[in-house]
Design brief:
Elements lengths: L9 E4 H13 L5 H6 L13 E3 H15 L15 H9 L5 H15 L3 E8 L2 E8 L7 H20 L5 E5 L11 H4 L4 E2 L5 E6 L11 H7 L5 H4 L7 H12 L7 H7 L4 H10 L4 H19 L4 H7 L5 H12 L3 H7 L1
Parallel strand pairs: 5-6
Antiparallel strand pairs: 1-2, 3-4, 4-7, 5-7
Helix pairs in contact: 1-3, 4-5, 5-6, 10-13, 11-12, 14-15
């Protein structure tokens, strides 16, 4: 007897499992082994309102991708062999910002298949990951659309180590019987019967730096499907805004109240949200001041006293004490040894 795992709530529509089963049928293959691995009873496929857990979805997807040797799970006319989506992420690792990485990811995805076209666009303060269908995706349209958009968002979150909240989702198909599941699949309002499908989010995230490397990619690829089937939990946008303000507008960062006012939040909210993002204002101040100090010491011949003032210290003595705490040496010795 197949049992359902109880570790998470069953909120993924059975329609997505049925779509994978259909991909097996198209190849003349038997999906029973994959269903067994995912602990999904075959009779659930006949119950339109049935749900499975995110873990079951992950198990089924991985088994199907390997057995079909198709990471697209039958959506496209041409298979995407195992490793295709990992290759897309690897090509984006060297991008300086998320905006460049996502544009590259979309462009390279368009080289893998001509059944859909992905674009990254911005309109005012909003960014859009657009999915335009170039061929009739038929009964796999919904599963393809949801998977590709969630994959793109998951990759964006992983690359920046940030949870990117969505402002809304547009979908180029009619509301399915399980339309209520879209409150879990996507944040924000979901619009059906749209001219094309897209995700919308704050364009500010496009300026976030890429925080991952090849070692992190190798670790992530061991369970890459988590990027698609489960929401990312961390948000670092405020951290980056604070870092930028500390570096570019030090006149607004003398204390938490001034900085919070510049960022249009209360001081209490500033401290709370930074804590939620795994940071603190003092740690960010130290990090930015250290980076600026090192840069000025190495790149210029300015006096230590002048550098101390430029990086936000009231006197040379407090700067020297802080610098020694950061680096283990004094600014003069650091400059001489460089």
């Amino acid at each position: 007897m197949v049992t359902t795992p109880s570790a998470s709530r069953a909120e993924t529509p059975i329609a997505f499992i049925a779509a994978m089963v259909q991909a097996y049928a198209r190849r003349g293959m038997d999906p029973s082994g994959a269903l067994l691995k995912a602990k999904i009873a075959p009779q659930l496929l006949t119950q339109p309102q049935a749900r499975v857990t995110a873990l079951q979805m992950e198990w089924m997807s991985e088994a199907a991708m390997r057995e079909l040797d198709d990471e697209a799970l039958g959506w496209f006319r041409r298979r995407l062999p195992w490793g295709s989506y990992g290759m897309l992420v690897r090509a984006s690792l060297t991008a300086p910002t998320l905006g460049v990485a996502l544009a590259r990811w979309c462009r390279h995805h368009n080289l893998l298949t001509d059944d859909i076209r992905l674009n990254l666009n911005t309109t005012g303060a909003k960014a859009h990951i657009e999915l335009h269908e170039q061929t009739d995706l038929g009964p796999l349209r919904e599963f393809c659309t949801v998977s590709v958009l969630r994959n793109a968002l998951g990759v964006a979150c992983w690359l920046t180590d940030s949870r990117i909240p969505q402002a809304g989702t547009s979908l180029h198909f009619a509301p399915p019987p399980h339309a209520d599941s879209y409150r879990v699949l996507f944040e924000g309002p979901s619009e059906f019967n749209a001219p094309y499908s897209q995700l919308v989010f704050d364009a500010g995230y496009l300026q976030l730096p890429i925080r991952r490397d090849e070692a992190a990619l190798q670790h992530m690829l061991q369970r890459a499907l988590l990027l698609t089937v489960r929401p990312y939990r961390r948000d670092r946008l405020l951290v980056e805004k604070v870092r930028h303000t500390l570096a570019e507008h030090p006149e607004h960062s003398r204390n938490a109240e001034d900085l919070a006012a510049w960022l249009h939040v209360s001081a209490r909210t500033l401290h709370r949200q930074l804590k939620e993002e795994g940071a603190s204002l003092q740690a960010l101040k130290d990090s930015v001041r250290r980076e600026m100090s090192v840069d000025l010491l190495l790149r210029t011949s300015r006096p230590i006293k002048q550098i101390a003032g430029e990086v936000g210290f009231h006197n040379e003595k407090s700067f020297m004490r802080a610098f020694k705490g950061w680096t283990g040496t004094t600014p003069e010795v650091f400059r001489q040894d460089a």
